[in-house]
Amino acid sequence: MAPSRQLLISVTQSVKALGAGDGVLSVVVIARNEADRLGRCLASVAWAAERLVIDSGSRDGTPRIARAHGARVVHADWPGFGAQRNRGLVLASHDWVLFLDADEWLEADGREAIEAFLVAPDADGARLPRRNRWLGRPLAHGRAYPDRQLRLVRRGRGHWSVARVHEHLQVPGAVRDLTGHVGHEPYRDLSEHWNTVRSYSRLASDELGREGRSATLGDVLARPPLRFVDAYLLRAGFRDGRAGLAVAGLGALYCGMKWGRRWRAQRFASGSS
Question: Which domains does the chain have, with CATH numbers?
Fold first, then answer.
């Protein structure tokens, strides 16, 4: 075969691989009552071969929104974040799986980075930086950026931890850092952020207990201000203005509540007043 003809075939195959993701990529989203923001998430990955939404009892039309965007919907109970995502690994149809939350979306450069990686993948997983927004305000500093997330995995080469909170994808093989971004706006309003701080601090405290980690009064008193200094000063969260201050403060509050709950649970278990 003539070299020019061979090159043309190679380029054509690469273009097809970069197209709709046919036969290559599944996107998995776990959801419950996310009708108001699931559409943006799914529209950002409309090019993927498969979009799979695992719904755990939505009552706001989330499954209807998912189907309207061409997603396959699976109804399931709620075993926890990590276990639900592991279900996605089993249910996905294609060789590569990208995990997104309903409050996330893949930005244009994220698509380009993933498509380029999947043409000739040289690792079993890939991380992408996440661009966070807080109540509509972009966060480019502090602990909010680059906030790299391991979300892309070759099926059969990784799994999610089953921690009750802050679960993470575990890939024993090589992992690459990509340059494209995932967008993220986790809170609809301040009340939702506060409720998340309360519930996640409780779950995180329980997780500390299951891991056999103890808390001292020093942890309760020192960790929150150190967390604030790290986010607001050392990582320049102050450059994000009032949003940076609020996020750093709420992060310190979460830290204090997590360790405070653990400390009080220990005292209760030991019979201390």
Answer: 12-184 (3.90.550.10), 190-270 (no CATH)
